[in-house]
Request: fold
Amino acid sequence: MSKKGMVYLVGAGPGEPKLSTLRAKELIERCNVLVFDNLANPELRKWTRKECIQIDVGKSPGRHTVEQRDIEKTLVEHAASGSMVVRLKGGDPFVFGRCAEEMLALDKADIAYEVVPGVTAALACAGYAGLPLSHRECGSTISFLTGHEDLTKEELRVDFSKFAQVGGTLCIYMGMSKLEEIVEKLLNGGMSPDIPSAVVSNGTLPSQKKIISSLKDLVSSTKKAGLGAPAIVFIGNAIGRTGDKANWFEKRLLFGRKLVLTRPTGQVSKFKEKLEQFGAEVMELPLIKILPSEDKKLIAEVFAGIATYEWVVFTSANGAREFMRLFFLAYGDIRSFGPMRIACVGESTAEVFRSHCLEVEIVAEKSTAENLAKDLVATDSLDSANVLVVTGNRNREVLVQMLEDIGHAIVDTLPLYETDFTDVTEALDLKKFRELGADAIIFTSSSTALSYIEQEDDLVLDQEAIKPIICSFGPETSKTLSENELTVELECSNPSIEDMTSKLVEYFS
Ligand code: SAH
Reply:
């Protein structure tokens, strides 16, 4: 008989993936089966292994709701056949999460489980909306209530008129569809019509919205602002103790902006993080992939004769990184680098060498291969000099030709990687991009632009979607884009993540 598996009842947190626990992350990364509902942010599913079976048991329009007992059956069946199952629930599994029923079903089937708490929506929404739930003078109790527990049930479960007398702060989950009735009951129960109230919808997400008003105006203000579920309703004097300044989350300069990155997977993390710090929602549509070059013989020859070069020229940060990786594999000691002078196409490329305390003599003022060649020729040091040009498989011809024809250098080229187009239909964020569109799409190289153009049919936006502005890292990329009738709105003056980020911040704020 096969060994039984285990079920982890895991809180996914309120929305923002970084608010999930370390335990949640490690379990999602390891599990064989992930059973999730729609409050758990889809971003968390990207942490799963390729082989992980993902089962959607959420309620969504046009689809039958999966019955609670069928969810329990799914958990039991997969665990009984030996799988490690993560049951992912929004927020905390024990707060209005029907966890007790699942635990009972697992106990009955003699299946082991672990409960992983999560940040519940009330706490997260309060924090991200800058609304304190307690206050020394006016908020000594905090109550978590639910408007309804099940959409199909008509009645309010809680006697709100009684809660009018409890005082402190009320945090109401699932209250939106019955908001009018809830407010009426609280007022009838004797609660002051002027008590501060708030609604926070989509808390912690780039789509977060909030309103603050008095209890008597809560329904009309919520309607006017168009707030919908999921939302938490807060009522209590403590939440009125902070002013507009507390709006730290929604005040960030790129808050709510959807930005698309097109760099290869694995190269976006620093950029993504930077943009997210400013509140942007980042979508990833990797349009190219970087594959290491296979010409081992050529690599060995170049590295054997490395001491013979006077200049080594780099046209991309990818090439620079791969060159240094191979260099350390071959020599293991920076002193073997020798007196070669280094020239780079741009700042990010130069950074690779500076991080090894190697001086970069030339960084092209405008980051194009042509400008780099001009700057090199201007040094008057190329005549009969041995020059090594380290490149990918694209955009090297102009540079080499100029160094040879104008500078009279003896040029060897060392292609260290190949750039290939990815199949954009495989990008996880493609569906979202087509449905919602974006505020900006950022092209980091001509190849990302060419790949976009080649696959434009698969990238057509839905009618309602926002049309993104086009941003380019440098003149060469811009040229490729404009030659294909794509108007460039923003271009880096000094191609780097920092420069593009500040251009975006300036544009959108
Ligand atoms: N177990 C969850 C609650 C599930 S009940 C938790 O601990 O958070 C579902 C309700 O949670 C929603 O109707 C809404 O009231 C609230 N909710 C969940 N996520 C939310 C979010 N990001 N913003 C606002 N409310 C949210």
Observations:
- The pocket of S-adenosyl-L-homocysteine is lined by residues 14-15, 39, 89-92, 95-97, 120-121, 125, 173-174, 200-205, 229-232 (CB under 6 Å).
- The two ends are 63 Å apart (CA to CA).
